[in-house]
Predict the 3D structure of the following.
Amino acid sequence: MALGARLGRGLRAGDVVLLYGELGAGKTTFVRGLARGAGFRGRVTSPTFALAHVYRGRRLNVHHLDLYRLTSGDTSELGLDELLGDPRGAVVVEWPQAVPRWPARRVEVRLSHVKNGRRVSVRDARRRVAVKKSGTKNK
């Protein structure tokens, strides 16, 4: 959650964060930290069944999408263009591979299980930053 909070503090309107990882890898936990870093103090939950949640922070809205159940790649029901155009918003997407094209300027976060913990890799195409962190899982 700490790495998510760090990324959230630097998040700006218009940013797109794509989260990759198998079930249980910690994507929603990462979003909890990210939303806290962006100034949101409420409860953050997985939008698997709702497809989208918005967390209105003090300085930024975080649009949290979970596209796991999206089968067609059609995001028209989500209003993705409107979310991407929110002048106070950033978009964070779990299971982004359901949509074939994302903006070239994006942050990609890859989470995976490793022995005794998880690995998080962050690549920011716009800022040319790469961070890798491995550690024990929070219990």
